[in-house]
Design a protein that fits this description.
Strand content: 15-25%
Strand order of the largest sheet: 5-4-3-6-2-1-7
Helix content: 25-40%
Number of strands: 20
Number of helices: 17
Radius of gyration: 35 Å
Largest sheet: 7 strands, mixed
Structural class: alpha/beta
Distance between the termini: 111 Å
């Protein structure tokens, strides 16, 4: 049996790196700035353990320089630098990670601040994505070393030579290709740096060659300011952050000038390193389906928005930042590899959200009630998506009643013989039924969202014996009078309406209701309604199926109403007109009339009024 070594041909791998390794071309700038940050982090580490001599007053920095005239983009740092041997080892050996090598040599688990960003040894090669040529000028921190210059045009060969470099550190010089000229524009470069490097832990300065220095009114040069924030709020301890800082950070990062409701500051060191801030934004119900924005960072370097592996799907309505150096990113550092570790982080975030909601409910119930209209959608969705979340939060799910009070399910059911929960889905359409409830001292909860249909089914499944009923699904016994009416009279009233309406399929009942000024109501069974709404929610996939239940409502006539009592005394067309009008009035409290029905209703109303005059 023969054995051999798999070889990688650089002439073939460069097109792969340039086109397929990274999802977006602009990521090259993130990678090169991250490498520069790592070079400085390494030097700080060595200086801290006495392995390197660095002046105490030296200021670490990364410079990004645009030289448009010469078509060059330069990324420079005053970090650890490289020797000629290190350049040949780390640069010319693709996928050999200098960061990994460094970490193995100077491993110190207790030093949480010396986090290295790079791990795969491929980030540097992203420099070839926008470039026709890449050069490195570097000088190691090691005493007695000479500067090194390396250059490559993306082919199989490179040039390397010793040259004089005055200061320690590295300069990456990109000669930008014709198809990537946008990276010579200040606006583009600044936007990319703001996207990926706004919170990187070393100051970044952007300079445009040939641009005049800015001066104050006295002619003094105004010092250039870094374009990034090296100590973002999430990296601080929660006790050191003020409400004003939390709100200002929210507005700055998400460009949302609406005040957030509240927030959760994540600060975990064990069993994983996780920091971040999750904001609960005020919901804009007109656009309630719009996702939030959770920004994922790795050692303060932006990775991606809304990474569903880390943030549970139901929390995507939130806005926030998550920074987890331990996340198992793929080689392009753009996506997560599937890993049980990620699931643990996701579960921890879910737990922290549930703990925060419990804390507000317990300590600030009035504030919690105020938040509910904005936060209930994702809480309900979260319960249905994650039963563990429901188990943690179920005692803090509240419902707004007809008087605007917020009650838990046990509070609503307190004193009731059964576990029936009446609800309202549309306060305007169901106003007639709401009045009947109020007059009989009964209460209901308001559940107007589309999601509520699914949520109440979920609660019924989880809470044994609990049954949700919309207030127009049945006539409660409390609404009925003790007045008796003969079966013969009932049959006569039913026949009058059946003949007048001409609909043999219509289900008609006669009951005696306490509310005498209500001539009739429409009832639709809870089961039929939910089936209709379920099919409707699936859209075109089940188009037309919701109509299967259109005839299952019941037209209930109130025998205690004066109009119903006198119908037998009215003959001919007037009786037919009155029956149709009573029917339409009942339907108006059930659902909007069709354009044709509404036209007839208005015409009939005018005819009835003319008869009064």
């Amino acid at each position: 049996m023969a054995k051999g070594n798999i070889s990688v041909n650089s002439e073939n791998i460069f097109p792969v790196i340039k086109k397929w390794l990274y999802s977006d071309k602009d990521i090259f700038l993130r990678e090169l700035v991250s490498n520069a940050c790592d070079a400085i982090t390494k030097l700080k580490k060595l200086s801290g353990i006495g392995e390197a001599s660095v002046p105490a007053d030296e200021k670490y920095r990364i410079d990004v320089i645009i030289d448009k005239e010469n078509k060059k983009l330069i990324i420079a740092d005053n970090g650890i630098g490289m020797t000629k041997e290190e350049v040949e080892k780390y640069i010319t050996d693709i996928a050999f990670s200098g960061a990994t090598d460094f970490l193995e040599k100077f491993k110190d688990e207790s030093d949480k601040d010396a986090q290295i960003i790079g791990h795969f040894g491929l980030g540097f090669y992203s420099a070839f994505m926008p470039s026709e040529r890449v050069e490195i000028e570097t000088l190691s921190y090691k005493a007695g070393e000479s500067g090194v210059k390396w250059s490559c045009d993306g082919g199989m060969t490179y040039d390397i030579e010793v040259f004089d470099k005055a200061s320690r550190g590295t300069r990456i010089i990109l000669t930008i290709a014709e198809d990537s000229k946008e990276f010579l524009e200040e606006y583009t470069v600044r936007s990319v740096l703001s996207k990926y490097c706004a919170f990187i832990p070393v100051e970044i300065y952007l300079t445009v060659e040939g641009e005049e220095e800015k001066k104050d009114d006295n002619g003094n040069v105004i010092p250039k300011m870094p374009i990034n924030d090296t100590t973002p709020l999430w990296m601080k301890a929660p006790k050191d952050c003020t409400e004003e800082e939390y709100r200002a950070f929210y507005k700055k990062v998400f460009l949302d000038f609406n005040e957030p409701l509240f927030w959760i500051h994540l600060n975990v060191d064990f069993p994983f390193n996780l920091k971040g801030i999750l904001y609960f934004p005020k919901a804009n119900h007109e656009y309630a389906s719009i996702e939030g924005q959770i920004k994922l960072f790795n050692n303060q370097v932006f990775v991606a928005d809304n990474v569903k592996e880390v943030i549970p799907e139901f929390l995507m309505l939130l806005k926030g930042v998550i920074d987890c150096p331990d996340l198992p990113l793929n080689v392009s550092r753009s996506f997560l590899q599937n890993d049980g570790y990620v699931k643990k982080i996701s579960s921890h975030i879910t737990k922290k959200v549930a703990d925060k909601l419990k804390e507000i409910y317990t300590k600030e119930r009035e504030e919690y009630n105020k938040y509910w209209d904005d936060i209930n959608v994702f809480i309900k969705y979260g319960c249905m998506r994650d039963e563990k979340f429901y188990d943690k939060i179920k005692d803090y799910i509240i419902y707004k009643d007809l008087d605007g009070k917020y009650l838990t399910l046990p509070e609503y059911l307190d004193g009731k013989e059964n576990k029936d929960v009446y609800y309202v889905s549309d306060e305007n359409m169901q106003s007639q039924y709401i009045n009947m409830f109020r007059e009989n001292g009964m209460n209901a909860v308001i559940l107007p969202a589309m999601m509520d249909t699914h949520f109440i089914s979920f609660v019924e499944m989880k809470e044994d014996g609990t049954k949700f009923r919309r207030i127009d699904s049945a006539v409660d016994e409390n609404f009925k009078t003790d007045e008796s009416i003969s079966e013969q009279d009932k049959e006569e009233i039913v026949k009058i309406f059946a003949d007048a309406l001409g609909d043999e399929t219509l289900k008609i009942e006669v009951q005696s209701l306490k509310k005498a000024d209500t001539s009739a109501v429409i009832l639709l069974s809870e089961e039929s309604r939910r089936m209709q709404e379920m099919y409707r929610s699936y859209g075109q996939q089940f188009a037309g199926m919701s109509d299967m239940f259109r005839d299952e409502f019941t037209f209930v006539l109130n025998s205690n109403n004066p109009l119903i009592k006198k119908l037998s005394d009215i003959d001919g067309e007037d009786r037919k007109m009155l029956c149709e009008h009573i029917y339409d009035l009942a339907m108006l409290s059930h659902k909007p009339l069709s354009p044709e029905q509404m036209t007839k209703f208005i015409e009939r109303s005018n005819q009835l009024m003319s008869k009064i005059i």
